[in-house]
Amino acid sequence: MTHHRQTVPFEKYHGTGNDFVVVDADYPVPNRPVFATTYCDRTTGVVDSSSETVGADGVLFLALESSYDPPRVVMTLVQPDGSVAAMCGNGARCAAAWARNRTGADVVMIDTPAGTRRAVLDGDEVTVEMGVPSFEPRDVPLARDEPLVEERVEGLTVTAVDTGVPHAVAFVESVDDVDLESVAPPIRHADLFPRGTNVTVASETEDGFRQRTFERGVEGETRSCGTGAVAVVAVAKRLGLVGDEEVRVSPPGGDLMIRVPDREEATLRGPVVRDFEGELETVPTPEP
């Protein structure tokens, strides 16, 4: 008896090194968590032969509704641990670039579990609205009734903010001196965060901030995190370090430009790159 392997076409995109397998949601993938866990694995996952990168920070399942003006994309990000993230800034920027390649539109609306976000494309640069950051305990969420601002949690002084997903942000002397893989997990799983949190460290530079983020769902550091970059500027503004101006935030993968105006949508701006395309089995073959 012959089994026909079911495959789906995919594309690989990244925004400042935050990389994603992108699949058109019109193609059926029966078990999205298994698909994501398999192909995002940094040792055995999808391989880009040109850059020799293995795996990804998540799978973007995108449903294009091109009859709208501007076109809309329903974005579902399944993370390497099989969970679904409510929001991903760099993922949303990649989704907008993917939609433009199909529609030619320079403005795209992206529907996420955290709300609808407007993206504007200019060359290889994409600016996406990120919602209004919130320090409210019910939004983060926190297991208490007061905001968490500059308090010690598991060894770091952090401020908690929601930028579509929760972040615990710590300003440090140098992000290079932080052993993120060891200091982040206790904060990420702290009782104070009933749904867990991303952990972001930042240090001031002459022209902005450097950033490193340990991502919930990836369960490790990523080369870039858009919601984390917005969280850095939102917290910096709360602490009086910056104003309404656009601020440069530099994760390991490149530069992002962030604006956090008062009571208006924050914005995330940066480049998007389409790496390559291919085919993947919808039901990954188990290891022998």
Automatic annotation (TrEMBL):
PANTHER family assigned: DIAMINOPIMELATE EPIMERASE, DIAMINOPIMELATE EPIMERASE, CHLOROPLASTIC
UniProt xrefs under Pfam families: DAP_epimerase
Pathway: Amino-acid biosynthesis; L-lysine biosynthesis via DAP pathway; DL-2,6-diaminopimelate from LL-2,6-diaminopimelate: step 1/1
Catalytic reaction annotation: (2S,6S)-2,6-diaminopimelate = meso-2,6-diaminopimelate
Active site: C88 (proton donor), C225 (proton acceptor)
Site (Could be important to modulate the pK values of the two catalytic cysteine residues) location in chain: H167, E215
Domain of life: Archaea
Localization, UniProt: Cytoplasm
Organism: Salinigranum rubrum
Main subcellular location of this protein, as a coarse class: cytoplasm
Gene Ontology MF terms: diaminopimelate epimerase activity
EC number of this enzyme: 5.1.1.7
Residues engaged in binding substrate: N18, Q79, G89, N90, N198, E215, R216, G226, T227
Record keywords, A-Z: Amino-acid biosynthesis, Cytoplasm, Isomerase, Lysine biosynthesis
Family indicated by similarity: Belongs to the diaminopimelate epimerase family.
Function as written in the Swiss-Prot or TrEMBL entry: Catalyzes the stereoinversion of LL-2,6-diaminopimelate (L,L-DAP) to meso-diaminopimelate (meso-DAP), a precursor of L-lysine.
Record carries keyword Cell cycle: no
This protein's name: Diaminopimelate epimerase
Gene Ontology biological process terms from the UniProt entry: lysine biosynthetic process via diaminopimelate
Assembly: Homodimer.
CC terms in the record's Gene Ontology section: cytosol
